[in-house]
Amino acid sequence: MANHDAQGAELKDSSGAAVETNGLTKAFGKRVVVDRLSFTVPKACVAAFVGPNGAGKSTTLRLLLGLLRPTSGTATVLGTSIDKPEMYLPRVGSLIEGPAFYPGLTGRGNLEVLVALGKLRADHIDEVLELVGLDRRSGDRVAKYSMGMKQRLGLAAALLPEPSLLILDEPANGLDPTGIAAMRTLLRKVADLGITVLVSSHQLSELQQIADWVIIINQGVLRYQGKLDPLLQRAGTTYISPELPEDAGRLAEALKTAGYEPVVAVSGRIQIILDHGTASDISRLAGELGIVLAELHTGQSTLEDVYFDMTDRGSIA
Amino acid sequence: MLRSFQSELLKLRRPWMLAGVLGPLIGFAIVSPIIQFVLADRAGKPGGMGLKSATALAASNGLARVVTDSAAYSGVIVVVVFATGFATEFGWGTLRNLLVRQPNRASLLTGKFLGLVDFLFAGIVLATIAGVITSIVMGRIENIPTDSWFTSAGTSALVSSTTNLMLSAIGWASLGLLAAILFRAPGPAVGVVLAFFPIELLVNGWWEEGTRWLPGQIFAAVAAGGTIDTNFDRALALTLGYSLVAISIATFLFVRNDVTS
User: Fold this and answer.
1) Percent helix, strand and coil across chain B, each rounded to 5?
2) What CATH number should be reported for the domain whose range is A236-300?
3) CA A214/CA B224 separation, integer angstroms
4) pLDDT per residue over A110-148, tens digit each?
């Protein structure tokens, strides 16, 4: 992970860490859900926290919120150890594993409960309700809310304490395309105001549009952390088609020998993740074998490509 | 703790909470005097067990005794309300929202407990008022004199019996809280507290000393102002002791355990 950490050094050093974990581990009985996880979330950025279902994302977020206690390892949130959640939670807003509210109370009533409990500004309720577009329905009982409305109310609750850090677990669940776009805009907006956003989501294309930083975990283990842009550039996918399809096997073998991991399609088209070297290296290799290339095209990967690569085939680090 | 208490009171505005707690309490407080007054002539006859005669009802403590009768049901209501009230916080996931805003778990639990106890006390007072009004009306309908109820001895007995009901409720509330924290889901928590009643009756039938030690018997003795087996002071001391133990175990588990819901 050293290379990846170096890539993100500029972002980290310029603003400090909002979240830092060191060997964080959580086991439920013999089942290790979070395994020696060490990552950093720089301040004032949108950090995407991604991984398959059961990867340990929600457990990690719960550890950061003091809802679970680590089996071993340490972590700090806003510079304070997670052993003392009462020191930093007043500056943290969160939405974990879906919105949870009292169905018999109105949307506003639910926020009033949290305001009373957290000794927050009561006049901030109107602001956050308007921000998430629930101001006109705030007098309705939550039992009458759609999933998307509950999700927006959850976001309003997270914004209530005027946080320095927002920890959001699947905030776009249940939102329609308009709601997802609005959520994306909102998260970018709050990050631009200097609020750090740590967001887990399976909406990878949405995350790619707003994230500055990405943390990928699988089976509780860190696969990648660092800036998103270099990751996508570095892990571009290259498509190669020899002029003669029967040359595909020979070229694939040569690529394998050169340290690539080629995937040959039935059509003879070869796809590789270009994590080292350049297209010209591949062109030269084909020339040495006397193979004429009909196609040599390198395109930038998406976060989804990287995600599948790291979670299906292991880390590219 | 004060903040937890205040937020709990805000939460209790929920319509189902008002209907679910106050409804049964007030309902029993109304039904019990009706039964007592209508069936007063059967007191002391076969099938009239637990009924009071017209003479007993007309005594200065008659009103207080009618009101205390509804306490037999209030124990069930209180223990179910507390088991449900706390366990649903786990089930709905609302607990994690609360803990993020109030990470001091002992403080959160204490505030919530006191908030619900406060709400319950208000319910008992309202139920007593409903019981008093019903009794007066039924006294007139059944031509049973009620003048002595409003003497100083009568009002003192009424205040005393209402206070005893509240003290008894603390015991039931503590058991409900413990069940909720142990089982973390309303279904099992309520199931266990409801099973507690017949199980205790069975144990009481088998164990001679049961009426002197079993929690339900002791809480009932407090509500009744003392019984032949257990005087009021002893019953109160045991009730407070049982409550302290139950609340301490619940707090220990709540502070120590992970919140995974």
Assistant:
1) 80, 0, 20
2) 3.30.70.100
3) 65
4) 999 999 998 888 999 999 999 888 889 989 999 999 888
Nearest CA in chain B to A167: B100
Residue in this structure with the two tokens 């790291």, named with its chain if needed: A310
Q: Is A275 left (phi over 0), alpha (psi -120 to 50) or beta?
A: alpha
Concatenated DSSP letters of A225-287: EEEHHHHHHHTEEEEEEESSGGGHHHHHHHHHHTT---EE-TTS-EEEEESSS-HHHHHHHHH
Domain boundaries for CATH 3.40.50.300 within chain A:
2-227
- Give CA–CA dist B258/A88, Å, rounded: 19
* Residues B93-107: b if buried by 16+ CB within 10 A, e if exposed: bbbbbbbbbbbbbeb
Find the helix or strand (DSSP H, E) in which B240 lies.
Answer: helix B232-256
* Block residue for tokens 């805003």: B101
- For domain A2-227, is the CATH number 3.10.310.30? no
Three-state DSSP class for residue A91: helix
What is the least distance, in Å, from the CA of A118 to any CA of chain B? 5
C-alpha B167/C-alpha A272 separation (Å) is 75
Task: Output the pLDDT for position A274.
Answer: 60
Are B52 and B65 within 8 A, CB to CB? yes
Cβ–Cβ contact A147 with B under 8 A: no
Determine the 3-state secondary structure of B162 from DSSP.
helix
Judging contacts by C-beta atoms under 8 Å, the chain A residues touching residue B108 are 117
Cross-chain Cβ contact B259/A101 below 8 Å: no
What's the pLDDT score for residue A14? 41
Judge whether A27 is closer than 8 Å to chain B, CB to CB: no
Classify residue A30 by burial, with Cβ atoms within 10 Å: 0-12, 13-18, 19+: exposed
Distance CA A27, CA A59 (A): 10
Q: Which positions 46-105 of A are in contact with B (Cβ < 8 Å)?
A: 62, 65-69, 85-86, 89, 92, 94, 96-98, 100-105
Tell me how far apart the alpha carbons of residues B2 and A44 are, in angstroms, rounded to a whole number. Answer: 34
Distance between CA atoms of residues A25 and A32, nearest Å: 7
Is B17 at the interface with chain A, CB within 8 A? yes
pLDDT tens digits, residue range A172-217?
Answer: 887 888 888 888 888 888 888 889 999 998 878 788 888 889 998 9
Percent of residues in chain A assigned helix, strand, coil, to nearest 5:
40, 25, 35
Q: Is B11 on the interface with A (CB under 8 A)?
A: yes
Residue A310: how many CB atoms within 10 A of its CB? 21
Distance of alpha carbon A79 from alpha carbon A88, whole angstroms: 8
Q: Locate CATH 3.30.70.100 in chain A.
A: 236-300
DSSP state of A211: -
Helix A124-131 vs helix A107-118: crossing angle, to nearest 10 = 130
Which of B16, B92, B99 lies closest to A67 in CB terms?
B99
